[in-house]
Amino acid sequence: MRITRGLHRVWAYVRSAPGTYVWLGILFVTTVAVHHMSPEFEQEFLRQRSTNIHELSNNPVRVLFASAMWMDGGRWLPYAVLYTVFHAQAERWLGTARWLMVCVAAHVLATLISEGALLEAIRRGVAPQSAVNTLDIGVSYALAGVVGVLVYRIAVPWRYPYLVVVLAVYGVPLATGRTFTDLGHFTSVVIGLACYPLVRGCGKAWNPKETVAALRG
Fold first, then answer.
1. I want to staple 148 with a disulfide (CB 3.0 to 4.6 A). Which of 16, 32, 189, 211 is the partner?
2. 114 with 47: CB under 8 angstroms?
3. Tens of pLDDT, residues 65-79
4. pTM: predicted TM-score of the whole model, two decimal places
């Protein structure tokens, strides 16, 4: 009986964030497919779906969509946790349409900005010419954008510690590594923060203090 109740709750939660779990289901299928590829074929296959400079110059719309449906490295389970913690929460709060707008804005704009920076580095001779074919695939830019917009989900003053942690998590790698992907991730967070107009009318911000008090009875 308890198991049945638990399964009903899980299913209700999944249905409350359909976009998140449909996307996660697609990623599961594509991850399984990648595991059945040889290493050589996998690299070439993913490169053709990568948002690198070469593919963006020739097939921008196709690769911007395709790159969000595959993951490099084949680690699906950590993303299942991250999607549940961040994407599902954002979709339930914003609604599927607004959540999707944040995801698309972060994924597309951060990709174009980071690849533009890489192109400029190639022109200046700072990065090698071969970088035009760099493998750049995955869902992390959209995730970072959602992590950013969730700042507004948390009530003041709890919002500010969350914001500091987010800026540290994505800002420190940018300051120390300075790779185009670090730039892309930090840019995605900024884009998420810039999506404030989308959160208006989405209900009261979550107050952790009220949640703790309710649990204590």
1. 189
2. no
3. 999 999 877 789 999
4. 0.93
